[in-house]
User: What shape does this take?
Amino acid sequence: MHNGATNFIDGQWLTSVSGDTFPSVDPGNHERVLGTYARSGSAEVKLAVEAASRAYRSWRATPAPARGALISRMGEILAANKEDLAHQISREMGKVLIEARGDVQEAIDMARYIGAFGRMPDGYTVPSERQDVACFARRVPVGVVAMITPWNFPVAIPAWKMFPALVTGNTVVMKPSEESPGVAVAFVQMLTEAGIPRGVVNLLTGFGREVGKELIESPHVSVVSFTGSTATGTQIMERCATLGKRVSCEMGGKNGIIVLEDADLELAVKGAIWSAFGTTGQRCTAASRLIVHKAVIDSFTNRLLTAVQALAVGQAGNDAVDIGPVINEGQVHRIHNYVQRAIDAGAKLLCGGARPVGDAYSSGSFYEPTVLAGVTPDMEIAQVEVFGPVTVIMKADSFEGAIDIANSTNYGLSLSVYTRSSSLAFRAIELLDAGLTYINLPTSGAEIQLPFGGTRKTGNGHREAGLHAADYCTEWKASYINYSETSDLVRAQIDV
Assistant: This one.
């Protein structure tokens, strides 16, 4: 593919109708253009949705074991290309290599897991109250699924959304982030190698305001699946409600780690470092709040600062680097403004709080790992999702107080507790208002065989992965069969 032929529509790689393109730039080196991609609009959306609609009937009729086998083949292709794809992720969105490999591994795991769904039960039978009547219910696909995916997990999140949709018989139009189009193109190329039929998966590169909006408005799109900011997700949910469309939104998080007075502080610090600064803090599960019992807050803080100061910031492709760049310059300014406002509000800057100095950082979007102390639950920095390498330390006077602080935001994605007490651990699991709870583990580390998603403004109730991964793109159909050889009319409830 050359000259922006990066839309995949009805089995063909195409340029935009207008010929417009946009570049993908290395966030660690703004002078490095990684590729040029089709800038799509309403014309491309119409073509892609029509292709997906045409393919839906035959794909739905394809036996589920065959659909599952294709997803399994995709998993093996991903595994064979894991290292190359990890390097591409690292270049395009700045994730360090060890994490980029993990991004691909999640997709591999998801393919192997969901591929088996092709031979799993897709419903259940129940006894009827009427003689000679059979009753059963099964999941059925809904049609064309529009996927709007983010840049921070450019392989894993498309896999979470796409594989359940495909194995259950839906077709897909995917709009990846404009920050990571190259990885999306590589992902779809692998699907073609796996044997995806024409029109079943379509890819549109471009911008949300030009492609995402048109996808949502299309009358032939039955489901919208979105991962991104709460502000954008809320707009999508409101519009889909008006249009009567199914919608699944995975949005923001304001996650926290509670460190109780009996915690293993060495383990807690390791968990805090990984949770707060993994993916340069650009995870929806990042721990941007460290809620520490007053009895151990000084010791924990000292250990944490020692660990933070040992982190290496630099180009993501270097295996010795712990923290790569953030995604773009706009995000650098956004992060810095949050930090400055927190300091103005009374927070104490313990480390970081600026761009790193030196020629190695001058051409990229870098920000130092940052820790703020003296933060209270009413401060902006304790309530908003910063989405960068910034975490805050908050003091708790008791177990109950720590739980209250953890639950004091509008989000409920991932919360963790470090304690040696099994009693407190199980109490915490019951009391924490989040879709994911961890004991003596980081806030990041979900496995694909359990549901992923959150409460309150984190999402709209749907879950990705796990046994219910296809809930968002399927509907239940109940069926009743009268196999009696008589001509008698048997009515439910009335003739009992």
Notes: The first helix runs from residue 42 to 61. The radius of gyration is 24 Å.
